[in-house]
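Q: Convert this sequence to structure tokens.
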Amino acid sequence: MVQSYLRHGPTQAFGLVCSASSNSSYDGKLAYVPALEDVLVWDMKKGQLLSMWHETGHRAEVTCILRSPQDDVFAVGYADGSIRLWNSISNSVIATFNGHKKAVTALAFDLQGTRLASGSQDTDLIVWDIVAEAGLYRLRGHRDQITAIHFISPSELPSTSTGPTSQLLLSTSKDTLLKLWDLSTQHCMQTIVAHRSEIWTMDINPEQSLIFTGSSEGELKVWSIDREALSEGLKASESGEVNKMIHSVTNIPLSSRHRVSQISFHPSEPYVAVQSHDRSIEIIRIRTEEEIKKKQARRKKRAKEKLEKDHNGGKLKTTAKATEENADADEEINLIDLFTPYLIVRATGKIRSFDFALKETGLKSGVHLLVALATNALEVYSIPHPKKSKEDTPEATRTFSVDIPGHRTDVRTLCLSSDDQLLASASNGSLKLWNLKTTACIRTIDCGYAICSTFLPGDRHIAIGTKSGEILIYDLASSSLSETIKAHSATVWSLHVRADGQAVVSGSADKEVKFWEIENKAILDEEHGPPKYSLSFVHIRTLQMSDDVLSVRYSPNGKLLAVSLLDSTVKVFYQDSLKFFLSLYGHKLPVLSMDISDDSKLIVTCSADKNVKIWGLDFGDCHKSIFAHEESVMQVFFEKKSHYFWTVGKDKMLKYWDGDKFENIQKLDGHHSEIWALAVSHHGKFVVTGSHDKSIRVWEKLDEPLFLEEERERELENIYEAGLADTLNRSDRPIGDSDEQTSAEAAAVTKQTSETLMSGERIMEAIDLADGERAALQEYEDQKARVGTLEAAGLQPPPRNAVLAAYDLEPEAYVLRVVEKVPSTALHDALLVLPFGKVVSLMKYLDLWAQRGWNIVLTSRIIFFLLKTHHHQIVANRIMRTSLIPLRVHLRNALRIEKDTIGYNLAALQHIRRRTEAERTALFFEEHMDEDIVLAKIAEGKKRKRVTIKA
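A:
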């Protein structure tokens, strides 16, 4: 019988506050931040995690987050080029857009939130229709990664009688270009070489009159948008030059010359925030015109005073003349005078991104700014409003921060308590205890640079080996450091507790293996209370080695001790007498970790040479050498009471192996960086991994059986599907007029994925099934017509197809049902999969749907797409004429009915609006203009204030 194993699957990921893969969004209360492939929603005031937006099976990192003008909708871009629209109330995906080949780097919504523009590392811009859930067109022109996009709203443009106002789009890229696109004609109106180096960020002020761009050289440039030129469109002047829409205005000096990585205008307050240094954000205040005029008046007064002081006649005339000229020049408000440096926000770590609060919490508290740090933490700073007095220099204060639920640096070591309830994780600077049921962080204790860790017998203490050579013992009940032992003079690489719980061994880079006895030490209270007991280590003996010790393990039967050295060998000693027993050599690079099976028969070693070797402990013979990972294998552990073992590597993979059959049982991918640490459950229920991406992941054993042959087949299928989609998406493919497509500035939005290929196949199967059913029915009808009525009574109708009978549907209704189930975003790509023969068949069904008035919106969408795609073949094909003419008649009739319905509804809505407005006006006058109330107010004799009303 074929052996089956139990499958493991990812159950939870925790330890992340926010990752540095994307920007973050903040609305004054909730922060929406990336956490590798998920989006987390934090309540900043309470420091609570409210929800996690996770899509099962999706592994690509979040690279961009943007809030839509429509409430509760967020667009999230991912590293695989997909964009998902999330509903923040239901935490579910509304739509998925696939169009980019590489990571999405910039997103922008228009004012109504009905269109979304996305830019990517593949240099393309795509405009999506949110309502129809379809890609409208792809814009090509940039030569490098798109870094920022902005819509310029048409409401600002004066509308003309000739046609609707065109919407404009601004884009910047790492190719140093700033481009202005006209979306109605889908072409670039103006291209500006904005900087000498890569443009990293761009923002437009709320009035949409100024553009700020920032470069990698630390330059901040201001550009003005010429509204008149925009309303006129592209026109040539008398000299033949085309009108420029965007003009360079000035450069704003910054305090640091680092790369300008983000610029952001506050939506309502007069502030601009610029991040150009790793740890600080400059806040620039926008002055009002009154302030500038006051400043100019002061300047004039100062010049006048200086003039009076100067008694020299000749000099007097010239300066008088100069001041008059200056006075005239100063009347014009200079743009550079509008912006003044206000304050600098300094964060506690490297800043990844920031965002102004959308809704301010209170007027007195000032403006709130969310700062997402690259060190897995979030902070909110309050920026005070400017004060009248000059003495107070404004300072930003940190109001909230979220940093407890995660490590600031890589998770270097993990260990589990004996009952699998507690998990301890340690990094450079902190030791954290987690409840594995709730994944809540129970304790956070400061520690040194932790390298290895272990729970001590009783689960009340943890021992940690550090980079400085100390062993730190922590008491968990009081979350305090109970003892520091100066154990070694170099890094402690490994700690292991003997199976009987009486002794501990430590191995270090100072070439020594030290043995320690665990003893209970009584600590007396000052007030002569009962003594408290604390665990302590007593040094018994030292084993001097020839090289750095990287790993030490006791065998579970307590007889042997294995020591791995920097010279790539493993030495095995008798643990009581320390007499040499075996030397295991065969690895080309040092053994980083090893483990001995519960029956003390096998030892497994993993090395930096990417190999795992399984040895017998009787004679030291190598049973098998396996090329296990693509990079160094960091840790290995046997599952309890079995010969199955787990390995983790720098290739981001966790792998499960059978140590008797030397087979790879399962590969688990989920981490986005190298995995440093591994801990295996004492009851064999789960494993925990810790990584450079600062996340801790739990992989649980499921009840689902796993067969190796099926697993290998599935892996091959996945490779084939990925390869198939890649070949279809190649831009240099010879099919059709791809050359024309790649050179065009605007192109169609298509991207084949395994999902669209499957949808196309389902449509083809449905058409085949329906065609067969209709052919059988037609044959039956023909037979009935041929023979007489008496014989026809005896003819049996053909048996119905099992699928159609189960659904109780007609063939054409079944095809519609299948097409309706295809996601709207994937429909066009699914239709591209159909061969022309199937398109001809589908046209017949489209005619029937139009005739019966079934889902006219979908029917017309499919018809127009197919006519556009297969235009040449349809025109050249005479057979199509018979089906196209009735189709035109039926579709026109159906669309006319739809048009009438919409017109009727619009008229009704307008009538309701007019009636509501009339009622509201009448109610207002009734409430506020009652004669008795007005007379009573006058009689009270209150002095009425003069009120100025601004229109």
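The chain has a mean pLDDT of 86.
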